[in-house]
Amino acid sequence: MSASNNSSSSASTFTLIGIPGLEAANFWLAFLLCSLYLFAVLGNGTIIYIIKAEQSLHEPMYLFLCMLAAIDVLLSTSTMPRMMDLLWFNSTTIGFDACLLQMFCIHSLSAMESTILLAMAFDRYVAICCPLRHAAILTSPRIAKIGLAAVIRGATMTAPFPIFIKRLPYCRSHIISHCYCEHMAVVKLACADTRFNNIYGIIVAFFIVGLDLMFISLSYVKILRAVLSLASKEEKLKAFSTCVAHLWAILVAYTPVVLSSIIYRFGHPVPPHVHILLANFYLLFPPMMNPIVYGVKTKQIRDRVLLLFRWKSF
């Protein structure tokens, strides 16, 4: 009974240690991460404002982009303020429930982002392969339902993470070797059999990242076939150019998370700070890069961003 009580009380708080081995560089790492975060918030906020204000951009591709921008802001905000507090002010203690809430936000928002990227691939498939039916298939109510489905899917698939972790006993170390409450980093602290948690994590990764990537790939196989069947080179380039920004967004979003997951589970020889830096990179790099990619590759957004800054300069 006393062991059980100790386990329960020991799980009231955790200690975040930041980036082990790079403590001397905490200030400059925090400065860099904060700069990336502010750039991500400013860039995605600008995208949301432009799409909301410009009636001509109320089309499926831009509405999905607006959802993606909102998710990116929330995803980076779920970790960065607490991370800055840790790296700049050495505030290492985090409450157990606060840790679970942060974990849920990170993983559910990442799942929502993956779903929106899949929806954007479907939009490009319909626009190129069934252009005459595009407006009829992707109506505003249907787009809203897709957004709601992304939220429900992300929340329901990742809600068991904190629920299962809350049931585990923590009678050993309470030190999380990370800058935030990442699922596997917390699971490794439990003094019980965690195979179920590991298996469920792999199942969620497969049903979100695995299935989404499979359907995205299938969409682009069909898109490529449709583009190659076009008569002129100009038509092919014009059709495929509408997909370039989305392809970059997919590459930026999935590459870090896949690498992070593989290294965390199988990369035992890799130094701990590489794990943590890569995990931070995956939470900040996509939110920072998406506004740049869509701003550079999408003429409609680029023109309105330039117009917005010209107007503010007068």
Structure characteristics:
314 residues, mainly alpha, Rhopdopsin 7-helix transmembrane proteins, three-stranded mixed β-sheet, 3 strands, disordered N terminus
List the helices and strands and how they pair.
Layout (H helix, E strand, L loop, with lengths): L1 H9 L2 E4 L9 H28 L6 H18 L2 H10 L3 E3 H34 L4 H4 L2 H19 L1 H7 L8 E2 L6 H5 L7 H34 L4 H34 L5 H26 L1 H15 L1
Parallel strand pairs: 1-3
Antiparallel strand pairs: 1-2
Helix pairs in contact: 2-3, 2-4, 2-12, 2-13, 3-5, 3-12, 5-7, 5-8, 5-10, 5-11, 10-11, 11-12, 12-13
Characterization of the model:
The protein is built from 13 helices and three strands; from the N terminus they run H-E-H-H-H-E-H-H-H-H-E-H-H-H-H-H. By secondary structure, it is mainly α. 37% of the residues are buried. Helix 2 runs antiparallel to helix 4 and helix 5 packs parallel to helix 10. The protein has a single domain, classed as Up-down Bundle (Rhopdopsin 7-helix transmembrane proteins). It starts with a helix and ends with a helix. The radius of gyration is 21 Å and the shape is globular. 77% of the residues lie in helices and 3% in strands. It has a three-stranded mixed β-sheet with strand order 2-1-3.
What count of structural domains?
Answer: 1
Would you tell me which CATH topology applies?
Rhopdopsin 7-helix transmembrane proteins
Class based on secondary structure composition and strand pairing = mainly alpha
- Which CATH architecture? Up-down Bundle
What's the CATH superfamily, by name?
Rhodopsin 7-helix transmembrane proteins
- Helix content range of the residues, please? over 70%
